Amino acid sequence: MTKNELIEKVAKKSYLTKRATTEAVNNTFGFIEDALTRGEKVVVSGFGTFLIRSRAARRGRNPQTGQTIQIPQKKLPGFTAGKTLKRKVR
């Protein structure tokens, strides 16, 4: 499902205009993004948790030259599904 498909389905289900729904969906994703940027986790009860995960620094290998390189630590967004969502997907 794409973002536009999500907007259309939410608009139909909630009887809102497509413009209002687009703004609501964009704002929701924006708030999640802002919270993750600040290092906070976002818990949506019954759905799941959005959080920041740290990937440790490690050694890697350049596949073209075979030279060993140091890959720096970095932070990545992550999602953990909640119990309710896991049960429904099974």
Structure, explained:
There is one protein chain. This protein is of the alpha+beta class and 90 residues long. It has one domain (3-89): IHF-like DNA-binding proteins (HU Protein, Chain A, Irregular). Helix content is 43%, strand content 30%. The protein has three helices and five strands; from the N terminus they run ααβββββα. It has helices at residues 3-14, 18-37, 83-89, and strands at 42-44, 48-55, 58-61, 68-71, 74-81. The strands form two sheets. A three-stranded antiparallel sheet has the order 1-2-5. The longest helix has 20 residues, at 18-37. The two termini are 19 Å apart.
Principal-axis shape: elongated
Order of strands, main sheet, comes to 1-2-5
Query: Which class in CATH terms?
Result: Few Secondary Structures
Which homologous superfamily in CATH is the superfamily? IHF-like DNA-binding proteins
Beta strands, count? 5
Using the coordinates shown, work out and report the CATH topology.
HU Protein, Chain A
Structural class: alpha+beta
Helix content: 40-55%
Oligomerization state of this entry? single chain
**How does CATH name the architecture?**
Irregular
Number of helices: 3
Strand portion:
25-35%
What's the main sheet like? 3 strands, antiparallel
Query: What is the radius of gyration?
Result: 19 Å
Order of helices and strands: HHEEEEEH
What is the terminal-to-terminal distance? 19 Å
The unreliable regions are none
Task: Compute the number of structural domains.
Answer: 1
Mean pLDDT: 95
